[in-house]
């Protein structure tokens, strides 16, 4: 029965892609005509670097490629499967298949082979949760090819990706974080005295868990038995620890940062939620910016880090709730910022703080997510909000100067994933056009 349910769900998504494909094709054809008329000459950079970017199926990898190419650099993309359609971007000079990241020795060797073959100067991993640690190990391997890796060390990755270790580290620096406890046994939660606490708590898996993160419940539940039933349903154990974290009432924000030798060089801050797929930089959150700068400087990070915060409605202070040491999709907010390459490549300290999105940058979104959202609209104000975003925002993949990824991502890449899931059904929560994945 479960397989039938997910097959029907997948067929529904495929139908939506099919119905929307004429819109995508029309937009692309018009754009190609405009592009032929307005095409700009390629930028010549006498100091151009050869740069490798991983996980080509993700929008953030495409945005990274566009930002670096716009400064005249030679960009190579890599991905585990051939239908990563961002490879057809005009900003990409070469594309190479790499080994499956589940086979770590083969994956490391394949990246090293690409670096050697293409004479890469800089490797920028656009990691996901399952590759961020192996990308840290690649860093040491690539030194023999005189290739720098813009990524943290294994030790830093272990600390940052472990929600409890990260909270403990931030607390030791005197930075604001919620109360948090490592849980390796369900009984720890059942024995916890919630009556002594000011706020409710939530339970989160320390390892990335796409399913559980979409169903967070505040503890304690209404009755003791409900709490027992909920906690008993979670796969908590010594080999799969969870974190019991204070739930601070407030507004949630996410950040993306690029850091070199502890200096925050690129930064954006956006409103956030579990499945947010719209990004607009908030330049009026100085306390969050200072928190990120202080933490990155204290651990002397080189690499990318994305922090999630709750800005408390009680005291106005930002409380960091977790860190993902990888590129955040919010990097799409830099689509018209010409200084992104400077943030990643230059080694001279910046004199006026980190590079941030331009004030003219519009809110980024993904067309198909917005079209699907229209089916869930329940009031006129929501209709106005969605149409305002569609006509006044910026589609994250679409570009007048680079139209093919927009067409191919929605008509080839995503339908291919859905067809594969139709043949080999598995449980999933959503179709994520931003990451180019079914999660």
Automatic annotation (TrEMBL):
Residues 229-329 form the ATP-grasp fold PylC-type domain. SUPFAM superfamilies: Glutathione synthetase ATP-binding domain-like. Keywords: Membrane, Transmembrane, Transmembrane helix. The chain crosses the membrane at residues 12-37. GO terms for molecular function: ATP binding; metal ion binding. The keyword Transmembrane helix applies. This is ATP-grasp fold PylC-type domain-containing protein. It comes from Adineta ricciae (Rotifer).
């Amino acid at each position: 029965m479960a397989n039938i349910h997910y097959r029907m769900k997948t067929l529904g998504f495929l139908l939506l892609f099919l119905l929307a494909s004429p819109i995508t094709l029309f937009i692309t054809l018009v754009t190609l005509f405009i592009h032929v008329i307005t095409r700009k000459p390629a930028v010549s950079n006498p100091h151009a670097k050869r740069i490798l970017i991983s996980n080509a199926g993700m929008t953030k990898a495409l945005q990274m490629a566009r930002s670096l190419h716009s400064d005249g650099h030679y960009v190579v993309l890599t991905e585990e499967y051939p239908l990563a359609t961002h490879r057809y971007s005009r900003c990409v000079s070469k594309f190479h298949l790499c080994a499956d990241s589940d086979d770590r020795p083969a994956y490391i060797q394949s990246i090293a082979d690409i670096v050697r073959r293409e004479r890469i100067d800089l490797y920028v991993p656009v990691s996901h949760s399952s590759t961020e640690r192996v990308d840290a190990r690649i860093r040491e391997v690539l030194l023999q090819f005189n290739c720098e890796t813009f990524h943290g060390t294994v030790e830093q990755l272990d600390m940052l990706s472990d929600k409890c270790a990260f909270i403990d580290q931030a607390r030791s620096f005197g930075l604001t974080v919620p109360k948090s406890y490592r849980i390796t046994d369900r009984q720890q939660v059942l024995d916890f005295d919630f009556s002594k606490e000011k706020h409710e708590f939530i339970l989160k898996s320390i390892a990335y868990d796409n399913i559980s993160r979409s169903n967070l419940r505040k503890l304690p539940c209404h009755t003791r038995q409900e709490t027992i039933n909920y906690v008993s349903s979670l796969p908590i154990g010594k080999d799969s620890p969870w974190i019991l974290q204070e739930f601070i009432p407030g507004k949630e924000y996410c950040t993306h940062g690029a850091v070199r030798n502890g200096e925050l060089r690129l930064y954006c801050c956006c409103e956030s939620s579990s499945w947010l797929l719209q990004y607009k930089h908030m330049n009026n959150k100085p306390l969050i910016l200072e928190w990120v700068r202080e933490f990155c400087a204290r651990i002397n990070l080189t690499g990318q880090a994305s922090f999630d915060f709750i800005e408390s409605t009680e005291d106005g202070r930002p409380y960091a709730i977790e860190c993902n040491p990888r590129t955040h999709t919010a990097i799409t907010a830099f689509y018209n910022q010409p200084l992104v390459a400077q943030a990643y490549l230059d080694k001279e300290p910046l004199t006026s703080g980190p590079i941030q999105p331009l004030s003219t940058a519009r809110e980024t979104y993904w067309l198909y997510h917005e079209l699907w959202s229209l089916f869930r609209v329940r009031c006129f104000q929501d209709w106005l909000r969605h149409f305002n975003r569609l006509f006044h925002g910026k589609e994250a993949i679409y570009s007048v100067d680079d139209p093919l990824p927009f067409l191919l991502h929605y008509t080839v890449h995503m339908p291919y994933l859905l067809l594969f899931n139709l043949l080999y059904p598995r449980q999933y929560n959503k179709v994520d056009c931003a990451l180019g994945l079914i999660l």
